[in-house]
Amino acid sequence: MPNPTAAMLVIGDEILSGRTHDSNTHHLAGALTAAGIDLREGRVVSDDADAIIAAVQALSGTWDHVFTSGGIGPTHDDITADAVARAMGRSIDVRQDARAILVEHYKKSGTELNDARLRMARIPEGATLIENPISAAPGFIIGNVHVMAGVPSIFKAMVASVIPTLTGGAPLLSRNMDVQRGEGDIAAPLAELAARFQQLTFGSYPFQRNGVYGTNIVARGQDGAMLDAAEAEMADLFG
Amino acid sequence: MPNPTAAMLVIGDEILSGRTHDSNTHHLAGALTAAGIDLREGRVVSDDADAIIAAVQALSGTWDHVFTSGGIGPTHDDITADAVARAMGRSIDVRQDARAILVEHYKKSGTELNDARLRMARIPEGATLIENPISAAPGFIIGNVHVMAGVPSIFKAMVASVIPTLTGGAPLLSRNMDVQRGEGDIAAPLAELAARFQQLTFGSYPFQRNGVYGTNIVARGQDGAMLDAAEAEMADLFG
After folding, report:
1. Which of residues 52-71 of B touch A (CB under 8 A)?
2. Weakest-pLDDT range from A36-50, A142-156, B59-73, B161-175
3. For chain A, what is the domain count?
4. Do A156 and A192 fall into the same domain?
5. CB contact under 8 A, A114 and B185
6. Contacting residues of B for A40, CB less than 8 Å apart
7. Edge-to-edge strands of the sheet including A212-221?
8. Residues A137, A189 within the same domain
9. Does the CB of A202 have a partner CB in chain B at under 8 Å?
10. Beta partners for residue A9, in sequence order
11. Does A149 reach chain B within 8 Å, measured CB to CB?
12. At what angle do helices B24-35 and B152-162 cross, to 10 degrees?
């Protein structure tokens, strides 16, 4: 059975302007690969309701799971929750369970739960909350869309709590080796190897370290024994 | 007049599997912002012809410029050039000017220009070559699509040679300040500020440094005098 599929949607002007380097896609990619879920597409859009809605609808209609990052804070440019609700055809308002989480959190620190912070309790009708162990304001799941924070530490905590609830397939395994030859030299034998191991995929990535050029060859697949066999052939061919 | 728009398309299984952290989008974002071209969307797709074709067609039909990264090397999984040719309805074959560049490059190093390396001279009909000062194999421009290498050093060199050929708008300028207050505290006055400066956009980004929580406020726009005025008000409000 093929693995479940997923897409990542990064939301935020700060990524597209070059202010901020997105690290959430890379983190999610590793976590999904380990869980046997295939990340198949990534997108980045600005803090624009129409752009978010179009991307959420396209991705949630194409892949099994969608993960979003960014735009669920208290300020005027945090419009992700409302845009996702519209994309999924749900109403949205301050929800009492989310409000209670914020009340308790801000009481502890003696901080006012003002109108801006209360916006973080806006949750689409029928959504399931995602715990935020760092700053309380929850993410949520609506349909197949997982809405999470953009701050990397909070995003990671939310990914860690969500992934175990998903049914994964066989984890994607890999074997890799460094070869002190250029990609152009190993291309032909690598293509033959790939043709013989149709259930695996092979990638090659040129590198330069301390002035030495070489290629890192990666074989990926779900069958560990088959990967071992491919690795042995790689060692014969390129070792 | 609004600025020209652009999209970035990253191509490669290694990004989606979590092996490799894409840094090219971030680099392009900064370079475009400085040139007055608005990066409006980013996508990542796998080394799959249908996925590449669909993304190229969607992005090139929506935005003024498209930039791609990855999949133009010599190995079997480097299918970007052929997929982009199909997406743009062009034929593709080894082109003599690209071949001549490779012949000269490999002659210098005494390396064989084998069939695999010759694939890097496959260029769509009517395309303009993009120089590769590092490893010779060129990128190319077809229609509004700029096809560039995935290796970050080569990608950067290609961006540097392409951007000056594009007509930019007014560069996007920014002013920013750090505030030792949470986002929830500055949200209301920041929203009022944003409402008064409709031609600017305002973002706020929470941070934690040495245990101190705060918010970085960023104002973005093309009018330096207006940004100066907004910065003065930010200092009054939050300083």
Report:
1. none
2. B161-175
3. 2
4. no
5. yes
6. 16, 45-46, 51
7. A173-179, A212-221, A201-209
8. no
9. yes
10. A43, A68
11. no
12. 20
Q: Tell whether A95 and A58 lie within a shared domain.
A: yes
- The answer to whether the Cβ–Cβ distance between A187 and B46 falls below 8 Å is no
pTM: 0.94
Q: Which of B88, B170, B94, B178 is nearest to B138 (CA)?
A: B94
Strand partners, A142: A145
Within this chain, do residues A21 and A126 fall inside the same structural domain, yes or no? yes
**C-alpha span between B60 and B167 (Å, rounded):** 17
Which residues from chain B sit within 8 angstroms of residue A202, using beta carbons? Answer: 76-77
Beta bridge partners of B176: B218
Pairing relation of β-strands A212-221 and A201-209?
A: antiparallel
For residues B61 and B178, membership in a common domain is answered with: no
> Cα(B167)–Cα(A68) distance, rounded to whole angstroms?
33
Q: Measured between CB atoms, which of B114, B184, B203 is closest to A184?
A: B114
CB contact under 8 A, B75 and A29: no
Q: Is B128 helix (H, G, I), strand (E, B) or coil?
A: strand
The answer to whether the CB of A147 falls within 8 A of the CB of A81 is yes
Closest alpha carbon to A52 in A63, A43, A64: A43
How many contacts (CB atoms, under 8 Å) link A and B?
194
Select from B165, B181, B210 the last residue of a domain: B165
> Quick check: A13 contacting B, CB < 8 Å?
yes
Task: Say if residue A159 is in the same domain as residue A191.
Answer: no
Domain range enclosing B53 = 5-165
Q: Interface pTM (ipTM) of the complex?
A: 0.93
Nearest partner of A20 among A53, A69, A80, judged by Cα: A69
**Segment B197-207 mean pLDDT:** 93
**Among the partner residues B112, B120, B204, nearest to A75 by beta-carbon distance:** B204
CA angle B95, B97, B99 (to 5 degrees): 65
Q: Give the distance from CA A232 to its chain's centroid.
A: 32
Q: Output the domain CATH number for residue A195.
A: 3.30.70
**Model pLDDT for residues B27-39, shown as the tens digit of each residue:** 999 999 999 999 9
Contact A29 B15 (CB under 8 A): yes
Task: Verify that A90 and A127 share a domain, yes or no.
Answer: yes
Strands ordered across the beta sheet of A145-148? A128-130, A139-142, A145-148, A65-69, A5-11, A38-45, B38-45, B5-11, B65-69, B145-148, B139-142, B128-130
**A133/B contact by beta carbon, under 8 A:** no
Statement: residue A239 has pLDDT above 90? no
* pLDDT tens-digit readout, A92-131: 999 999 999 999 999 998 999 999 999 999 999 999 999 9
The CA-based angle B89-B90-B91, given to 5 degrees, is 130
Q: Please report which residue ranges of B150-208 form alpha helices under DSSP H.
A: 152-162, 183-196
